[in-house]
């Protein structure tokens, strides 16, 4: 559980800046732009186990490595104001109605800066018509969407996604964010990341290759800066959300294919052919930049070699240690022109970084 200490925020942020500068020092990186987080109520997602004590169920979290000693909580200052407002109302509801409370063991909240909220209720029992009626009444009363989960069951009341809005360079984009799919947890810092990447890419007359595009978080604003985009993502849920987001925002210069970064590397190298690339003329693209936002493990060596083909590499990393490892491979052909630190996770050791690399 994260210990929130607004008075110590500046000190912990400076420690992250120092750590990032140390990681990037071997590559002659310039000083990073630093994008702070709100001190409280910055996290748009939260997940709680329930713990029975004193005849009642309470929200609980656990220290890493200890799932036997619950930390009972009523409010969670890390989470959004909307989550904190919903927590006592939901707790009162499951205590007042056995249809909602019986064998409920986990609660998940997903909210947006735009005001949407979705609550997932997880049970150790089948969900019946009585549960559905009680949950529908709860959803109406709280102004939220509700999903019920139990083994072999997923009951959606309303819809299974929330809608976020992000403004980049004066244009507002709308994002469908499905339950269970990855989204950036710190909405304010996500906005900083999008605007930084949009500015770093600049206005271009060539094309962009994007790997690990997710639900199109970066794709939408970056597509406005280039002639066209080829984007890849392996998750079916994220691909579906990205296609919806492209259509909803009228972005029509993006081709999205469901391939992993490794598979696309094989396709571009002529190692394998993929039916999912049928109808996509790879030779029609004039790629000037590759944008990557990989998982914590970073890019594999083959994908790094693919990135080295491009004049510009725009790299957003959720793990600067693996970013530094990748930079060891990229450094001989590219130099860091600009970099940034995004404090997605205050009061923890985690940090996100961005670098723009240009060919030497």
TrEMBL record:
PROSITE patterns: SAM_MT_RNA_M5U, TRMA_1, TRMA_2. InterPro entries: MeTrfase_TrmA_AS, MeTrfase_TrmA_CS, SAM-dependent_MTases_sf, TrmA_MeTrfase, U5_MeTrfase_fam. GO terms for biological process: methylation. The active site is at residues 318, 352. S-adenosyl-L-methionine binds at residues 184, 212, 217, 233, 293. Belongs to the class I-like SAM-binding methyltransferase superfamily. RNA M5U methyltransferase family. TrmA subfamily. The keyword tRNA processing applies. The keyword Transferase applies. This is tRNA/tmRNA (uracil-C(5))-methyltransferase. GO terms for molecular function: tRNA (uracil(54)-C5)-methyltransferase activity, S-adenosyl methionine-dependent. It catalyses: uridine(54) in tRNA + S-adenosyl-L-methionine = 5-methyluridine(54) in tRNA + S-adenosyl-L-homocysteine + H(+); uridine(341) in tmRNA + S-adenosyl-L-methionine = 5-methyluridine(341) in tmRNA + S-adenosyl-L-homocysteine + H(+). PANTHER family: TRNA/TMRNA (URACIL-C(5))-METHYLTRANSFERASE, TRNA_TMRNA (URACIL-C(5))-METHYLTRANSFERASE. It is an enzyme of class 2 (transferase). Its EC number is 2.1.1.35. Keywords: Methyltransferase, S-adenosyl-L-methionine, Transferase, tRNA processing. Dual-specificity methyltransferase that catalyzes the formation of 5-methyluridine at position 54 (m5U54) in all tRNAs, and that of position 341 (m5U341) in tmRNA (transfer-mRNA). It comes from Pseudomonas quercus.
